[in-house]
Amino acid sequence: MQDSTPSTPSSVALSAKLAIPKQPNKGISDAQKKALRIYASETHPRPTQRACAEWFLSQFNRHINRATVSKILSSKYEHLDTGFAGQNKRPLASRWPLLDEALYIWQQRHENAGFPITGPLIQRKAVEYWKKIPQYKDLDPPLFSERWLSRFKQRHSIRYHTSYGESASVPISTQTEMEAIRAICDQYQPNDIYNMDETGLFWRRMPNGGLSSKGSPGYKKDKSRITLAVTTNASGLDRMPLWLIGTAKTPRALRKLNIPSIGCVWRWNKNAWMRSDVMQEWFRSFYRHIGTQRRVVLLLDNFSAHLSALDNAPPPSNIQVVFLPSNSTSIYQPLDQGIIRNLKHHYRKKWMTWMINMMDRGVDPTQRMSLYYTLHWITQTWRRDVLDETIQKCFIKSTIIRPSTNGMEISQSEDLQLGDLYTQVTDRLPGTEVMELEEFLDPPDENLDVEEPDLSDIIIDLSEENAGGGDTQDSDDDQDEYIFGPPLDIPSRVEAIEYMDKALQFAQHQEGITEKDLRDIERIGHLFSRLQIDGRKQRRVDDYFGPKTN
């Protein structure tokens, strides 16, 4: 017989409490706090604390009380409004700068290669490097303690997290962090959501993988690799100029080249890396590009060079910088969902077409290829060949943008018909072993730099930089040409005008050419004519005011 005694309110409440499993008391992440602060500041009229708590529950499936809302919205967390969390005072400079910089270079290389770096590993490497640095030979070594390690990591904004395979299952903490990031991005239009990422590019790699000339042994893959920094918004309508990082300040192939007019930026260092100093410059360029009137969010992976650069170049209040969770960028970073791959495939299509043209003329493509063509092709591809639709789909695939429907697939290679081109190239390389098409299009080692840095080279590089000579390096011309390609034979002004006249004659006899097309060609011809007239005027002025002879 059932007990018909009615339950009291207190017994109902007690039963409810017993029925709900106790949730672990997890802290609220900085990304979640930032999302709530953005919601409160951008919603008009300003929401009540109760409304904020309800919004937080809808976004993160978590109850918070009004006191917590008040605390999060207080001045205590104003630092989150400047763009990123964790802005602490940087520690004092290292007492051992050579060791500090050498360790940082080693750490950057291994982080770039995707290898996990632990505190004990840094400490062991510090002991090893100390013994090898001649300047420290007669000095007592420091105690490479936890305190020393902590200061080293703070100086270079190094943060370590538990390692997970990037394509494996994503840990729950990462999923929670991504919900917070999506909540932030939900408050921006696609035009105002940006992503930047770096990638390596083997700009001169052949299908047979080889480049050997002038007695140089083998293929100099390190010298034929540059780093690209790619930036776009989620709509694809605002693609910032590509940043290209090489290993020489001004290779002969780029001398006298008006690089800004091409639509890119060239920077260099000995390893062609995105170092903290280059990243600082990139940040400031991005801030200028956005200006002060727009509110935007910038998504980055938490590579230590990004963190360190942001410490020294913090964003203005209208720009939010959000770091994606560690070991998850292959899943959540929009540029890694197919945008960069599509960019490289278009580039390699141009490279293969050019190879075929050279070989049909009896010319070795590796002897004529230079960084000039790389700059021209990659910037042209970024502006014209990568479609807005591709960029939009990749942002959706990353789950940063939450559309009504998802699941759109992107196909690069099939659309570009690269298989036929590759066969034409390899057919012209008889007697050589060639790699598979997939390896040529997506080299597995393109983003890796795993070679152990030579400590003596690091010390020499640092000494040159400290002496102020690091940015004026000019390599041997023969070696420069081998590494970066030959300089171009630049046409004279007269020749350029003649070429434009011939181009106009050709266009006038082609079907499908419009009057506007002809006017565009004429406009370029007139521009060249003005350059010739200006050059003549300058020569006359120089002659008139030239030095007098006694």
TrEMBL record:
Gene Ontology molecular-function annotations: DNA binding
HTH CENPB-type domain mapped to chain residues: 87-162
Single GO cellular component term: nucleus
Keyword DNA-binding: yes
Keywords: DNA-binding
Cross-referenced SUPFAM superfamilies: Homeodomain-like
The UniProt record lists the keyword DNA-binding: yes
Name of the protein in question: HTH CENPB-type domain-containing protein
Organism: Penicillium cinerascens
